[in-house]
Amino acid sequence: MSALSQRLQAIDALRGLVILIMMVDHVRETFYLHHQVLDPMRIEETEASLFFSRILAHLCAPVFVVLTGLSAYLYQAKHNSLSMTREFLLKRGLFLVILELLVINFAWTGQFPPHVIYLQVIWAIGISMIVLALLIGLPQRILWLIAVLIIFGHNLLDQVSLQQMPILQPIWLILHERGWIEWGEFLKLRTSYPVLPWIGVILLGYSIGATIFQAQMTPQRRTTYLWIFGCSSIVGFVILRMLNVYGDRAWLEMSTPLQTLMSFFNLTKYPPSLLFILWNVGLGLLLLVALEKVQQQAWVHPLIIYGSVPMFFYIVHLFVLKLLYVVAVALWGQNHGDYFGVNQVSTLWWIAIILCIVLYPLMRWFSKFKHQNKQIPFLKYL
């Protein structure tokens, strides 16, 4: 197996791992809505099992986005063409934006035509890919600089508001502030994932690829660099978090050591704070190092399968969850106020595990079908 194929397998394995973690969180958003969590969470009102399940799921979006940037560089290296890469990013980004608007929103809300459109992670990845397509011709040092400035500097903008400038306010909400955009009387847009920080993360992924995933880089040296990047990111998180002056809301000493620990890791996702990015991207890079070392082991193969068809899984699992919820309401009714829900966080994990096992044969079939039919253009987007 070539070095490139090995790298792609490790990337798919990491993507597959976070997909399975994502399933747990989406099961929570389907069957645990009677215990909704804020961002960041309220420690006193959130049980520890729910808190740490949610914190674990924080890993998903940063890893997806940084791997998108890394994969964009690998695509460019494989085809040795900047124009092909730019075209692919533009088409894939536009595809993801349209998919979010027309398909993903329907999977979440069941409304068509929609009254509310939630601009979530698929939207953010799509917009980030489009921006990356426009920037990849710049010198690599400039791309690194832009990535670092966005990631480390965007929290300086937290107090900026353009409410008094209605013409610019929608643009600001899309870029950096979670809020509502009213489009006439019948449609509202919710900017759940403001895109500016995610643009920094995708540029970071591309820059990491261009720096240490070059063909002449030995696997040992690449692993060393990934380890350094990952550890540096986590150490930076710990130092800044201990200082408690910048990068997220301050953590507090709570009534118990466990709650104090929860406060320390209670990070802001919408939009992702500097500390949120440092912790989760750093952890993701260390997981990539670990998976490269074990990617040939049999237990990793299902992760590779899931990671090879991420968008197909994303669409399928959302509709499966919606169907299960409708069936549950029909059978047992709304047992928690306006919702049907389970009573234990552990039940969410069991539902997610069972669904991942049940969906695996379909993912394996589609992965094989996708590999055997590369001539079908749209399959590469799934």
UniProtKB/TrEMBL annotation:
Annotated protein name in UniProt: Heparan-alpha-glucosaminide N-acetyltransferase catalytic domain-containing protein
Species: Acinetobacter tandoii DSM 14970 = CIP 107469
Pfam families: HGSNAT_cat
Domain Heparan-alpha-glucosaminide N-acetyltransferase catalytic: residue ranges: 7-215
Protein keywords: Membrane, Transmembrane, Transmembrane helix
Membrane-crossing residue ranges in chain numbering: 55-76, 88-109, 115-135, 142-157, 195-213, 225-246, 270-291, 303-328, 348-366
Domain of life: Bacteria
PANTHER family noted in UniProt: HEPARAN-ALPHA-GLUCOSAMINIDE N-ACETYLTRANSFERASE CATALYTIC DOMAIN-CONTAINING PROTEIN, MEMBRANE PROTEIN-LIKE PROTEIN
UniProt-listed InterPro entries: HGSNAT_cat
Top-level taxonomy: Bacteria, Pseudomonadati, Pseudomonadota, Gammaproteobacteria, Moraxellales
